[in-house]
Amino acid sequence: MLKLAELNSAGAAQTFAAYCLSCQWPVSVVVLAADRAELYAEEAVAALVQLELSAFIEQPNDPKYSSAAWAHNQPAASTASLGLAPVWQRMRSMAGVWTQTVALLCVLVFVAQQIWPGVVYNQLKFFNPWQFQDDWLSWRWLTPALLHFGVAHLMFNLLAWWLFAGRIEIHLGTRVLLVLSLAAAVISNTAQFLLHNDQFGGLSGVAYAVMGFAWCYGWRFQSPHLRLNHADIGVALLFLVLGFADLLWVNTANWAHLAGLLTGIGLALLQKRPAASAQSV
Question: Hey, what domains does the chain have and what are their CATH numbers?
Fold first, then answer.
């Protein structure tokens, strides 16, 4: 999603978003305070939303906006709203295209692993020691991040990825997340191979990278939507320490985790915060 504007009224931003949703325009609002909210829209409808926003700023009391907001806040009459559709819509609003694409790839690869376990693993695993010199220009730098060895392994990594990568993509853009995730996959996979062996897989190195990026970026710029609380980073660091101490109940790619975390922090230190300008309503 693209950030379109920062409004000086959270209520006005939510009213405008409700109208956009009634027009089938995918938008979302991040409320930072009662007098500050950020408006985001999908790139495909950004021009339409921007044009309508200009009209809204000129005439915020137009009945069409208040009517849409009232309708948006009413309980849906259809029983279909009691199912999983609202949950999925909420989840999609937390993640951009690249976040969803990586998650889908992980799920598809996991399904394929259940059908052709040996074939999929051998095609996507990191280089064998004898392959490293002969086949260095390969997808194997990246694809170990798509391999998972159990439902719990997959779900834990996807949860961390969705929560933290989604924030980064929504607030900083797809390009930032794309560069971060690809760099983290290559660096964390290589570190695990060089410092341990080639028998590993999982998105956890990349998940540590997006977590480290959000942690450092939020600390540098005091960004409320990317700042991690103490519990989040505390659990991540504790898991990392316990992994190196071999006190966990599962085998973990500890060097991939550490390399991913450091990659995320390093890229966050190089990142510039995009300028934002508030618009009055």
Answer: 2-74 (3.30.70.2350), 92-270 (1.20.1540.10)
